[in-house]
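Q: I have 190 residues here and want to know how they pack in 3D. Can you give me a structure?
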Amino acid sequence: MVVLNKIYTRTGDKGETALGNGTRVAKHSLRVTTYGTSDELNSFVGVARLHAADGMAEALARIQNDLFDLGADMCTPDMDKDSTREYPPLRMVAEQVARLEAEIDAMNGDLEPLRSFILPGGSALAAQLHVCRTVARRAERLAVELATVEPVNPDAVRYLNRLSDWFFVAARIANDNGKTDVLWVPGANR
């Protein structure tokens, strides 16, 4: 259980923060930037929920919880030492990726195939979901970069990859099942 009695601690005043294993690192480290970006994404998902109806709002709530799991996973770097802890670190699992895939398939089932790229926009919800999509892609790029220098849970990377796809398809659903998608017209303003 998490108990936060005091919000400020002054321990980060010199530009460092603690990872989940207690190690202190610079606040601008790649690992902190990676899980900080997933936190940023979570905030954007919260804004999207303001525009979402019941089923979509519930799915976005699940994603927000998953993004906290992802942040917990990414802030604890010692992948090979999990078994020595009193409480093993929370890790993303394949089932979370599979759930996103099933939801993508279900949402995509009723959509007409795309014949053009689409511009981010349409309804307020679709526009916000496109913001979520692009921030998810940035979080994924950071996680992939981090994995070149430190151990990263592959399920966390897979989750971020599927999540951006989920947001893309959900944005089409939010645009009246793709009927009000804003299509890209190559060279339209030449």
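Q: Anything worth noting?
A: The chain has one domain: 23-81+89-179. The beta strands are 16-18, 24-26, 118-119, 182-183.
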